[in-house]
Specification:
Blueprint lengths: L1 E4 L7 H16 L3 E4 L6 H10 L1 E4 L1 H4 L6 E4 L6 H9 L3 E4 L3 H18 L4 E5 L5 H8 L6 E3 L14 E5 L5 H14 L4 E3 L5 H4 L1 H11 L2 E5 L5 H13 L3 E4 L15 E6 L5 H15 L10 E6 L7 H14 L3 E5 L2 H7 L2 E3 L27 H13 L4 E6 L1 H14 L3 E5 L15 H22 L2 E6 L6 H9 L4 E3 L7 H15 L3 E6 L7 H11 L5 E5 L11 H19 L5 E6 L2 E6 H6 L6 H10 L2
Parallel strand pairs: 1-12, 2-3, 2-4, 4-5, 6-7, 6-8, 8-9, 10-11, 10-12, 13-14, 13-16, 16-17, 17-22, 18-20, 18-21, 19-20
Antiparallel strand pairs: 14-15, 22-23
Helix pairs in contact: 9-10, 12-20, 13-14, 16-17, 17-22
Subcellular location: Cytoplasm
Pfam families: LYTB, PFK
Keywords: 4Fe-4S, Allosteric enzyme, ATP-binding, Cytoplasm, Glycolysis, Iron, Iron-sulfur, Isoprene biosynthesis, Kinase, Magnesium, Metal-binding, Nucleotide-binding, Oxidoreductase, Transferase
């Protein structure tokens, strides 16, 4: 039986952003309130509650003072902002940009229609958090329409404009628009404000439901989007089942099924769909190769990266889920040589998801580079009956793993953990997203002082051989110039830019420099520019190892968790000498040979974007 997770299912950007902000604030403060469930999924809500997020209702919100409160992706009406101001509440605003833009459009249209006694119509679910926020933009006067039956509330003689809740269907909106066009006598406009991330899910999930014998749809019971998408699945495939957690699975659903599809709402976390998939496998006794592998070791090697702990957690718990023994190997390959092992239980990896660094610690091992050192490591594995390894690190880690598995026929699977994002065969490595956000936060602060003093800052970021951090963070911070190893950039070219762009139009500036740029580091380049332009007030800031630290972002946690599960799955499927990666949201298997020998290239489109936006 084949099982496939819907590649289009899972958190939308708005939900990821809200969770990311919640986790970021909880890592600094042990108290954060949220008006309503941050996402319509009780398991994810409970996870965040364990971290300290407290869910409250609007009535409770009115009584809170001088606290920090998160406004979730659904958005809030103006009254909530007024209450916050009055009660000196620190707002963590995670309103989805799509919803925020819609609120502004409705507010503007309401002001114009008010002049001609017009009316705002909103296609949406009455009482839904997003709809409440939209109605609030009209001082509560908008008419909410759920079905065509509600059209009796509309006055056809008044000028009207129709908007939609972002998570409704295009079919429903188009039907409502057609009915209104038939009855309206006064001027009428319809605005399609449905989020395409949601709208596109309907045709995509229809295709997905047709591909499989059985569909398991995972969603919280409160999710409107979940109910809508499940109804679509059920309409296409009658063998569709709605569940909220692994315990809801009924093994009888899969009798005689050759393929099973696992999908979910935009509020369904990827890790939960992975857990559901593993539960289905376990219940049906498929894809579990237990004949050879009984005990797995996991280690982290090379430079640490935020999210490594999330990967360790996923490896440990997936091994336990599959009834395997699991040992943590401390200090990387050095610990493998010295037998620095610890038997891991589920509770050993509790409360580490949000922590930076690695609980197993990391080290570079010169001895493992030798045949004798690798022989010692192999003997330790034999003595401790360790059958396979999961290694978390970068190209150096994988080079060692490749040689080790060739010499001793040990199954080894790698998880890409490096902030540089320079590994071939995966779109993202663990730690990259967090490192970028760390750089962005630092550069935003530096820009404040640059503007205050009319200074030109050269900011050096990590990237000895690759400019991924510099390029992406440079675009995100509006840097005037970005210098990376992949691009032939010389001091004269930079000077020409400064003469044409900076000198004529800028009073302050930011130049992002990857440490491995061919023109030299930030200090070298700054000195050369200073010689040519002594009139510039130049400063240099090297961000250094702060980019490696900090609590991992939601994206890194989800990526690490996904790859941790995939690594153990790969071992149980008799894979070895491969890296598990993520390409277009799907897990891929890439041979160590391929990821080591091939060089990942930066996208020319990003270089062009920076060139355009830095004028």
């Amino acid at each position: 039986m084949k099982i496939e997770i819907d590649p289009n299912a899972g958190f939308c950007f708005g939900v990821v952003n809200a969770i990311n902000k919640a986790e970021e604030n909880l890592s600094k403060d042990d108290q954060l309130y949220c008006i309503g469930d941050i996402v319509h999924n009780s398991i994810e809500v409970n996870r965040l509650n364990d971290l300290g997020l407290q869910t409250i209702e609007h009535d409770e919100f009115k009584g809170i003072k001088e606290r920090k409160v998160l406004f979730r992706a659904h958005g809030e009406p103006p009254s909530s902002y007024r209450i916050a101001k009055k009660n000196k509440i620190d707002i963590v605003d995670a309103t989805c940009p799509v919803v925020l833009n819609l609120q502004k459009r409705i507010k503007k249209s309401f002001r114009e229609l008010k002049k001609v006694n017009g009316q705002i119509l909103i296609y949406g679910k009455k009482g839904h958090a997003e709809v409440n926020g939209l109605v609030g933009q009209t001082s509560g006067k908008a008419i909410v329409i759920e079905t065509t039956k509600d059209l009796k509330s509309v006055n056809p003689d008044l000028p009207s404009e129709l908007f939609s809740q972002t998570t409704k269907t295009l079919e429903g909106f188009n039907l409502l628009r057609e009915e209104l066009q038939k009855i309206m006598k006064a001027p009428f406009k319809a605005h399609d404000t449905i989020c395409r991330k949601v709208a596109n899910r309907v045709p995509l999930i229809k295709e997905f439901a047709q591909k499989h014998d059985v569909i398991v749809f995972v969603s919280g019971k409160k999710s409107s989007n979940g109910k809508l998408l499940f109804d679509v699945c059920k309409g296409i495939n009658r063998n569709s089942y709605f569940i909220s957690e692994p315990q809801d699975i009924d093994v009888s659903w899969f009798a005689n099924a050759k393929s099973v599809g696992v999908s979910g709402a935009t509020s369904t976390p990827g890790w939960l769909m992975n857990e559901i998939t593993e539960k289905i496998k376990l219940e049906n006794k498929i894809n579990i190769s237990m004949s050879r592998i009984k005990k797995i070791g996991v280690l982290t090697s090379g430079g640490d990266a935020p999210g490594m702990n999330a990967a360790i957690r996923a490896v440990v718990r997936t091994a336990i889920f599959n009834k395997l023994e699991i040992v943590g190997i401390k200090q990387g390959y050095e610990g493998l040589i010295n037998g620095d092992f610890k038997k891991m239980k589920s509770h050993d990896v509790s409360n580490i998801l949000q922590k930076g660094g690695t609980i197993l610690r990391s080290a570079r091992s010169e001895e493992f580079r030798t045949v004798e050192g690798r022989q010692k490591a192999y003997q330790q594995m034999l003595d401790n009956k360790i059958d396979a390894l999961v290694v978390i690190g970068g190209d150096g880690t994988f080079s060692g793993a490749r040689i080790f598995t060739q010499e001793h026929d040990i199954p080894v699977v790698g998880i890409p953990g490096t902030i540089d994002n320079d590994l071939y065969g995966t779109d993202y490595t663990i730690g990259y997203d967090t490192a970028i956000n760390t750089v962005i936060d630092a550069v935003d602060k530096i820009r404040d002082t640059a503007s205050a003093h009319n200074r030109l800052f050269f900011i050096e970021v990590m990237g000895r051989d690759a400019g991924f951090i510099a390029l992406r963070s440079g675009i995100a911070t509006g840097a005037e110039a970005i210098l990376i190893p992949e691009k032939e950039t010389h001091a004269k070219e930079l000077q020409a830019y400064l003469e044409k762009g900076y000198k004529e139009h800028k009073s302050s500036g930011i130049v992002i420099v990857a440490e491995g740029d061919k023109s030299g580091g930030a200090y070298t380049i700054a000195k050369e520019i200073e010689k040519e332009h002594p009139e510039y007030d130049i400063r240099v800031s090297v961000l250094g190892h702060m980019q490696r630290g900090g609590s991992p972002s939601a994206f890194d946690r989800v990526t690490a968790s996904t790859l941790g599960v995939a690594a153990v799955d790969a071992l149980l499927d008799d894979q070895k000498s491969i890296m598990v990666g993520m390409v277009h949201g799907d897990v891929t298997h890439v041979p160590f040979n391929k990821t080591i020998k091939n060089k990942k290239k930066v996208k020319d489109t990003y270089l062009r974007i920076n060139e355009i936006l830095s004028i």
